[in-house]
Amino acid sequence: MAAPAAAQEVTTDTYDGFYIGATLGGDFIDGARDDRLVFDTDGNGGFGDSVRTVTGADAFSPGFCSGIANGSRSATGCGDDDGALGYSVRLGFDKRVGNSSLVAGFLVEGEMSNATDYTTGFSTTPASYTFARELDKSIALRGRIGASPGDGRGLIYATGGFAYGQIDDEFITTNGVNSFDVVNGDKWQFGAQFGGGAEVMVAGGVTFGVEYLYSSYDDDDAFVAVGQGTAPATNPFVLRNGGTDLKTNAGDFDKHSVRATIGYRF
């Protein structure tokens, strides 16, 4: 009877100490928003203006979409935002609380991703204008708390904390006459992350698991300065104030990540 008793003994020294790990999975842009381009035509810093033609008509009456333009006309529609393969490395520490199943800890993580968010507008020219934002890389500091019941070799947890990511900005257009310059692009932005996961420990301190993570970065700095270029003085972008600034109304860069995890506990 001694062997069965030993097999049922709760292990309380697992998930207690330092570990290293890596993740691999899919990154997906949060597409549940009605994104559009917004304009500042009078140079006062407020992006609530309309771009008007010489007759007073709305130059962007064909509309907007949350995606990348398939062509110059709105009738061609838009493609989806670009998901990407994301990967990361992490260093963390967990502490089992007493002899209970409760585990608390923290981790530092560096991530690479090329997930890209697109916002497009169509003008009556016709022409398309797409503002693209790509998360290049990020670092994060998160806490995590979870439960490791039974024999202590499994862990179910929630995680959350702060992130700092580099977001690259690009502008794509079929308008070949105006000039377009990205201002305040390619910057590091602060954000937050939260999610959860589960992992199991196998022989030798190695763990395997799955994880979901939601990331949101405050990204409201970049805009595109539109100049006259080779366009005539009657061009809608320069008609009011000699130029127009435009940006996406999506103030945050949001993405979902679904990952497989692997780790080694010391």
Automatic annotation (TrEMBL):
Family from the record: Belongs to the Omp25/RopB family.
InterPro entries (UniProt xref): OMP-like, OMP/PagP_B-barrel
SUPFAM superfamilies: OMPA-like
Protein name: Outer membrane protein beta-barrel domain
UniProt source species: Qipengyuania nanhaisediminis
Organism lineage: Bacteria, Pseudomonadati, Pseudomonadota, Alphaproteobacteria, Sphingomonadales
